[in-house]
Amino acid sequence: MTNSYSENDLRMKTKHTTRSIAVALCLSIAFLMLLIPTSALAVDDENCLMCHKYAGLGRYAKNEEQKAIKRIFYVNEELFRASFHGKLRCKSCHSGVEEIPHTDVKQVDCATNCHLNDPSTGRDFSHKAIVDDLKKSAHGADGAKTPDLIKDLPTCKDCHTNKPYQLSVDKEVESMRFIQVCLECHESEAWTNRFYKHMFYRAHTRRSSKQVVALCSQCHADKEKMDRHGIGVVVGFKDTFHAKAILYGDEDVANCLSCHAPYQMGFSPHRILSHADSSSPIHPDNKLENCRQAGCHADAQEAFASKGRAHPSNVIIERVDEDGVVISQEEQKFQAWVINMIELFYKILIVAVVGGLGFHRLADLYATHRERKIALRAAKLGRHPS
Amino acid sequence: MSHGKNERSFVRLTKSQRIQHVILFVSTGLLIITGFMLMGERWVIEMFGSAGNEIFYWRGIIHRVAGVSVTLVCLYHLGYIVLQEEGRSWIKDMLPRMSDATHASQNVSYMLGFRETRPKMERFTYMEKIEYFSVYFGMFIVIVTGIMMWTEEYWPKFWLDIADAFHLGEATLAALAIIIGHIFSVHYNPHVYPMNKAFIDGKISESMMKEEHGLWYERELERLAAEEAEATSEGNRNNA
């Protein structure tokens, strides 16, 4: 038995191996801990990420329509920290989360005070003023006719998605140069970065006109939903000059918000009003001023803004009021009829002209074909006289 | 039906008429392209990608420049047919006559095989007259509605909707009529394929003139003979 280990030797070797594995494990854990950014550990003092860092965290639930949906509770920390709300603690918005598993979760209310200091007032920051504005606006719950229609109304999250601050590469390079200047005085690079991006994002429109149209169309092009609220569905906008220019990427022409929430007239997307409201920018009395906004139709005359619709439709839109009575819109009906008649006139004319020309052309080709046959026969006869 | 190179040819279009025609068709082509760019569906427009905005800007400029030049050439033509001898002869021969209806019915029955020969036609055939006066009708509508939309601030919005509907309807009609009527008769017509060069050199060959404008051909021959006779008699007088 020259090449064999004794039992004792074997036991000794195993013990040795176990110890080295343990040491290696400890060392690698320590090393891995070094890799975790200390900032992350410091900010998540509520320790929510202990569970919410796992990508698989989620559950199946039922939504309001009793349809099964997948709810994801995973939070990508890096993305969250880079987002608009990245500096907030989780419980600033998710209030009442004390028990595990969370059975005491309340719906996030954007009007709560979030314990951030508003440097302009020195008080706690809150979106309450905007939430109140929204409530009073055409999109607000205050205007809803029946409680079951409230769920159709847009909430903060429908438009505001807490996106990460992301700049295009050239804008990123540009901002780095700018931030260098700030850092001459301001010490914290992280704070400067965030402050710059906060301003930068607000200095630029966050949604392109195309995105604005798509966002509003989610509801306003939905006939069923608009019928529920007694509002005319928007069908004519896509055929307007404004809409075509937007599709080409022109950001200077009017999108929905330019006329329905013009900042120049003191409105904002949170304070959109019904056309029936006398202070609304699309109320007949204010339309002219609306069209005349700087950069738009500055020379607009009374007639331009009063007779006719900004996004007319050939489809006659029937509106139903609360009692189910069809609101007659004689003017719109008449205008749609006139445009339809012009189109019909041209359709008939086009069919007649194209048909006539086509017939003439085909008949001419038939004649040419006959002439060629006759010419060929004549040539043949000429060559072989019988 | 030979189109020999040494064949005698006649003047079909004068220099002024050819220049008017070039301005008309270049502008109209640009107007049709830049105009229908507004009618594209979403996916067509999105194919321009990030260049879209720049293209849209130039689309508007080109449409306006071409619109102005087509308006000017139309106005010039109105002056031309009134004030110039050449233009007066043009419009005189262009005016519709009863004979056009006869020629039309005779030509159609020939084409369909009910007649042995084509009718002898004048300087302008009934089809050419229809095409010519269609341009008046179309131009009147697109120019008036175009000016309205260019000065939109001064018009009621509903009038602009009407103007828009007429502008689009007329443009569609004109584009189709030009393609099916005119392009086919001067390019794809087997007699002239691949193209009738008259719009470049202004000439028409004797054989084609005899075939398509028989009455005019006879008139021209008479005129030439009379001129010749006059020249000879004048020459004789001078010699005497």
Q: Any overview of this molecule?
A:
Chain A has 386 residues and is mainly alpha-helical. Among the domains of chain A are: 10-43; 329-380. Chain A is 48% helix and 6% strand. Chain A has helices at 7-35, 38-43, 49-52, 77-81, 90-93, 128-136, 156-159, 169-182, 189-203, 209-220, 223-229, 241-248, 256-260, 287-291, 302-306, 330-383; strands at 58-62, 68-72, 113-117, 124-126, 319-320, 326-327. Chain A has a two-stranded antiparallel ribbon. In chain A, strands 3-4 form a two-stranded antiparallel ribbon. In chain A, strand 3 (113-117) and strand 4 form a beta hairpin. The longest helix of chain A has 54 residues, at 330-383. Chain A is extended, with a radius of gyration of 35 Å. Chain B has 240 residues and is mostly helical. Chain B folds into two domains: 9-94 and 125-204, Transmembrane di-heme cytochromes, Chain C (Fumarate Reductase Cytochrome B subunit); 103-124 and 205-235, no CATH class. Helices cover 74% and strands 2% of the residues of chain B. Chain B contains ten helices and two strands; from the N terminus they run βααααααααβαα. Chain B has helices at residues 15-36, 42-46, 52-83, 85-94, 98-111, 126-150, 157-188, 198-201, 206-212, 214-239, and strands spanning 9-11, 203-205. Chain B has a two-stranded antiparallel ribbon with strand order 1-2. Chain B starts with 8 loop residues before the first strand and ends with a helix. The A-B interface holds A 241, 244-245, 247-251, 297, 299-301, 303-310, 312, 335, 338-339, 342-343, 345-346, 349-350, 353-354, 357-358, 360-361, 363-368, 370, 375 and B 1, 38, 40, 42, 45-46, 48, 50, 52-53, 55-57, 59, 108, 110-113, 127, 152-162, 165-166, 169-170, 172-173, 176-177, 180-181, 184-185, 189-191.
